Amino acid sequence: MELNICHLYPDILNLYGDQGNVLCLRQRLRWRGIEANVTGVSIGQTLHAADYDLFFIGGGQDFEQEVLLADLAGAKTAELKSAIEDGKPFLAICGGYQMLGAYYETWDGKKCGFTGALDLYTVGQKERMIGNYLFTCDDLNGAAIVGFENHSGRTYLGSRVRPMGRVLYGSGNNGKDGTEGVRYQNVFGTYSHGCLLPKNPQLADLLLRTALERKYGAAQLTPLDDTLEQRAHDYMEQRLRRAIKA
Amino acid sequence: MIAVAACKLARFGLRLLGRGGTDFPGRIALKLCPDLLGRLAKDVTVVIVTGTNGKTTTSRMLEQAVADAGISYLANRSGANLLSGVTAEFCAASTLGGKCRHPFALIEADEAAFKAISTFVDAKAIVVTNVFRDQLDRYGEVTHTLDNIRIGISHSPHATLCLNADDSLVSSLADEMSNPVIFYGVNVPIYASQVTEVSDAPYCIRCKHEYVYAHITYGHLGSFRCPHCGYARHTPQVAVTQVFSTDESGSHVMFHTDGGDFDTQINLPGGYNIYNACATMAMGQAIGLDPAVTSRALGHFSCGFGRMEKFEINGHSLRMILIKNPAGCNQVLNFVTAAREPVLFVACLNDRQQDGRDVSWIWDVDFERLTAMGDRLAAIYTSGERAEDMALRFHYAGVPAEKLRIYKDYGQLLDAVLAQDKPVYLMPTYTAMLGLREKISKTYGFKDFWE
């Protein structure tokens, strides 16, 4: 068995640890004897979405994100949309998450058009929402996800998508409505750096299982020894739950 | 000058309690007299070292050169590089009447503090070491860091700028500024083999097209050129023209300066310290030091405080190397992975404000290099508040479980370190380093281990 993973704009959308998510997916496949082929697709390269089983998009610095907007429009956007509607699993973090939405409006009123693949939009503000945070994940029966958010954009979800879960500690999508992230088809979008997947291995396995099931029908993932993963997760969960009480 | 007295008193009080620290006394002084620094620094020749990585090392190198040149100076130390810390250092070096005892001051300031400090002092020279991604929760993006430095420079119209020609971000600071500039750089590659790393500045700061490089020394540093708009590396006036060797004990290089060429020993290992030495040579030229004196100073300065610092506990040899961001940590790995004998690595990760509250950066470090050491990697111990995250990173880097241990408690960690016989590399983040030092000095009676 093998999975073909597409890492979009790995040289640009690589802010603070997001590439660790790809490493995590790759290792969790290899430890189970499943081949993982990771392909970076960046500016000027054609995206053939049909070649891939799973997509990862990270976040970037504002300066670099502006570099790729023109490249993202057109053919790449069309490919991404069809892959999403086709039910391929996606994980998109922060800037990558925002780009799957309709647009980003800066705090001083400038509007940048994005892919419009998902029914959501983002409005920038001056103050950033920064810190460790904790939220539930509906697809994992409400299990708590630990992460670190650092964003100035407030994201608002439309009626055609649902959030990934509810914020237990921190700001989440917009600091107001208590939601965090987005779910649509098999797309997971979130503000969580951290890096996200290694400390939340259930989420990593959910993405992998979805991709394998789509490709091979039924898929059984051999359980891994997640002692270290669980320790890292539990340390932060407990610390943040204490902070909620305080 | 009540503020000076209050600051001195608070500092004395802290020392009586056996504590270091300059931040608190400085804050008291600033409450009492907000422009105290400006008053104390009025007749002092001030030079400032700023940038992301290498500030402390460059400052210590420069300090040695200044001392060897026979200049009486004050310098801020112990990471006292915020406005409050710098003010406290000036208070300590001033009379109660508010007169500074030294004609010369060497200030190390982080990018944000530089912006504040430069409103009070009229610097004679400023060196900018480099700009890398660092603690994004605190400093934001690299362009934001660069903006802070640009504002600081705009407050310093009389300063000669010593800019890293190899850093496309730093050298862009020369644009739109009328200050005299000395560019410095490394004309040749430093490493035979390098870690794989993410570039923090792949796209042209002026026109957003991708740079091409004739050579890369590390990170985004090197001989860059934008094929679209023509923005390119400036020819450095102060340059490393040859790297003869770089090993465990230090580096041997050739410097070219306006005052001639200098065959120089740098007594601190690590290729990145060649840049710090080069920055020092540039600064020496800016303030008129004899380049031969500066060159010799590089061979016998001492750095300490977690910058490749060597010490022994009960016959065990330890080296402490501060880590704080991907670029710096990757350079540390370039050095430590060159070890010939099996070594023990200890990584201590904290997530307080001075460390950076976001620990995601460890996933951008090429720790896979440690796994590739094979038998030369005896074991890795992790500690600190985020010890589990650190261990997880090594786990995903492919370090076998039997080589990986977590010790949350510094006492247990040190016991385990001393119970084995391999040379040790301690790699803590800033507050973890303070905690470790405190534990070591209390347990093993190290005097002056706190600076």
Distance between the termini of chain B: 27 Å
Counted by DSSP, the helix tally of chain B is: 16
Order of helices and strands of chain A: EHEEHHEHEEEEEEEEHHH
What is the straight-line distance between the termini of chain A? 48 Å
- Please outline the major beta sheet of chain A: 6 strands, mixed
The Rg value of chain B, from CA coordinates, equals 21 Å
- Classify the helix fraction of chain A into a percent range: 25-40%
Q: Tell me the number of structural domains of chain B.
A: 2
Mean pLDDT of chain B comes to 91
Strand order of the largest sheet of chain B: 2-3-1-4-5-6-9-10-11
CATH class of the largest domain in chain B: Alpha Beta
In total, the number of strands of chain B is: 17
Q: What does the overall shape of chain B look like?
A: globular
Report the CATH architecture of chain A. 3-Layer(aba) Sandwich
| Percentage of β-strand residues of chain A | 25-35%
Oligomeric description of these chains = heterodimer
Fraction in helix of chain B: 25-40%
Q: Predict the CATH topology of the largest domain in chain B.
A: UDP-N-acetylmuramoyl-L-alanine:D-glutamate ligase
CATH topology of chain A: Rossmann fold
Structure overview:
The complex is a heterodimer of chains A (246) and B (451). Chain A is α/β, with parallel strands linked by helices and 246 residues long. Chain A has one domain: Rossmann fold (3-Layer(aba) Sandwich), CATH 3.40.50. Helix content of chain A is 32%, strand content 30%. Chain A is built from 7 helices and 12 strands. Chain A has helices spanning 19-30, 62-72, 75-85, 95-99, 196-199, 201-216, 227-245; strands spanning 2-8, 35-41, 54-57, 90-93, 103-105, 111-113, 120-137, 143-157, 165-169, 179-180, 182-184, 187-190. Chain A has a 6-stranded mixed sheet. Chain A is globular. The termini of chain A are far apart. The model of chain A has no long low-confidence stretch (mean pLDDT 95). Chain B is α/β, with parallel strands linked by helices and 451 residues long. Chain B folds into 2 domains: 2-297, Mur-like, catalytic domain (UDP-N-acetylmuramoyl-L-alanine:D-glutamate ligase, 3-Layer(aba) Sandwich), CATH 3.40.1190; 309-444, Mur ligase, C-terminal domain (Protein-Tyrosine Phosphatase, Chain A). Chain B is 34% helix and 22% strand. Chain B has 16 helices and 17 strands. A 9-stranded mixed sheet of chain B has the order 2-3-1-4-5-6-9-10-11, sandwiched between helices. Chain B has a 6-stranded mixed sheet with strand order 12-13-17-14-15-16, with helices on both faces. Chain B has a two-stranded antiparallel ribbon with strand order 7-8. Chain B is globular. Chain B starts with a helix and ends in a 7-residue tail after the last helix. The A-B interface holds A 11-12, 14-20, 23-24, 27, 43, 61-64, 66-67, 128, 130-132, 148, 150, 193-195, 198-199, 228-229, 231-232, 235 and B 133, 136-137, 140-143, 198-199, 202-203, 208, 210, 357-364, 386, 388-389, 391-393, 395-396, 398, 406.
